[in-house]
């Protein structure tokens, strides 16, 4: 295998993981969890979302959380921002990186953002411009890249068009999402090979969901193609509220375990990371799907 010596893992649990949880997690516990994540060796943590609280009540304390965490040097603290009002709050909270989001499929975009794809572009362009003027880096998320819960397979040309439009706005990195966990290694291989002439690998992250237990296999496929940035949610926390049954992001701790066993460096202390996983599992009050945590619980 031709594998990288090191990869970057971006932790999205405090945002993508918590946003769909029914049990409300206290602000103090969110802050403590993020502080624990900061001490695990992670270099990137997506800490919250500045979406209107009526849409995501779990993250209504976004400003307080962002202002109260202990910021560790060398760690990027990012947040999801849907529009200019959200950007105002994100800048008030002084996040390091602004994340924008949309879908590659029309129906999912309308369900998720309440706008068509074409209507979404000018809103996001405003956010990117405002964030850049404030000297912030910008990350884009594209959902339903490998399949949509409403439309099924998504036309690759449509995916490419969305990606190119976002890069034209000036984003620094793009995370390609398997929102409902339908991708398989062959599909991932074929798709990423076709995308090579369009997108630079250094500007792409992969965001796999483990709905059908395929996330690590898909990650290994992308690794062999030279991709080296991956999103994860500690413990496998999270899912997609608009995709029935799409529970569970790729568990960061399972990803770290696999990568370390393959002899690749992440800079992450797996013991500390797992301890942070048990902390948030206790606060949520239910077992998380991570295999790593299941093994550690029996030791």
| Count of strand segments | 8
Helix-strand makeup class: alpha/beta
Lateral strand order in the biggest sheet: 2-3-4-5-6-7
Low-confidence blocks of residues: none
Describe the protein in words.
- With 299 residues, the chain is α/β, with parallel strands linked by helices.
- It has one domain (8-298): TIM Barrel (Alpha-Beta Barrel).
- Helices cover 42% and strands 15% of the residues.
- It has twelve helices and eight strands.
- The strands form two sheets. It has a six-stranded parallel beta sheet. Strands 1-8 form a two-stranded parallel ribbon.
- Helix 2 runs antiparallel to helix 11 (270-284), helix 6 (117-133) runs parallel beside helix 7 (156-169) and helix 8 (185-195) runs parallel beside helix 9 (215-224).
- It starts with 7 loop residues before the first strand and ends with a helix.
- The model has no long low-confidence stretch (mean pLDDT 95).
Per-chain topology:
Elements: E1 8-11, H1 13-17, H2 27-38, E2 44-49, H3 62-68, E3 76-80, H4 84-92, E4 97-103, H5 106-113, H6 117-133, E5 137-143, H7 156-169, E6 173-178, H8 185-195, E7 204-208, H9 215-224, E8 229-232, H10 252-261, H11 270-284, H12 291-298
Parallel strand pairs: 1-8, 2-3, 3-4, 4-5, 5-6, 6-7
Helix pairs in contact: 2-3, 2-11, 6-7, 8-9
Task: Describe the structure in brief.
Residues 7-274 form the Pyruvate carboxyltransferase domain. The protein has twelve helices and eight strands.
Keywords:
TIM Barrel, 299 residues, six-stranded parallel β-sheet, metal ion binding, PYR_CT, 12 helices, hydroxymethylglutaryl-CoA lyase activity, alpha/beta, Aldolase_TIM, two-stranded parallel sheet
């Amino acid at each position: 295998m031709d594998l990288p010596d090191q990869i970057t893992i971006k932790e999205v649990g405090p945002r993508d993981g918590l946003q769909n949880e029914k049990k409300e997690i206290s602000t103090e516990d969110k802050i403590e969890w993020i502080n624990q994540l900061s001490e695990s060796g992670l270099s990137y943590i997506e800490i919250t979302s500045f979406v209107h609280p009526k849409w995501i009540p779990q993250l209504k304390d976004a400003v307080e959380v962002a202002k109260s965490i202990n910021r560790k040097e060398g760690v990027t603290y990012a947040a999801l921002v849907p529009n200019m009002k959200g950007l105002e709050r994100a800048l008030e909270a002084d996040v390091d990186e602004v994340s924008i989001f949309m879908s590659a499929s029309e129906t999912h975009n309308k369900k998720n953002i309440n706008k068509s794809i074409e209507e979404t572009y000018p809103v996001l362009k405003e956010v990117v411009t405002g964030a850049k003027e404030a000297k912030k880096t910008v990350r884009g998320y594209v959902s339903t890249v490998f399949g949509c819960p409403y439309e099924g397979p998504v036309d690759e040309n449509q995916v490419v068009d969305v990606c190119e439009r976002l890069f034209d706005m000036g984003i620094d990195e793009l995370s390609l999402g398997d929102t409902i966990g339908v991708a398989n290694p062959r599909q991932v291989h074929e798709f990423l090979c076709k995308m090579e002439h369009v997108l630079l690998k250094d500007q792409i992250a992969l965001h796999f969901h483990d709905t059908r237990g395929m996330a690590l296999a898909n990650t290994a496929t992308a690794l062999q193609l030279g991709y080296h940035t991956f999103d994860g949610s500690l413990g496998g926390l999270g899912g997609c509220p608009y995709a029935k049954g799409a529970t569970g992001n790729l568990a960061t701790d399972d990803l770290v375990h696999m990568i370390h066993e393959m002899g690749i460096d992440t800079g992450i202390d797996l013991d500390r990371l797992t301890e942070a996983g048990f902390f948030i599992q206790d606060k949520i009050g239910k077992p998380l799907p991570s295999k790593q945590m299941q093994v550690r619980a029996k030791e």
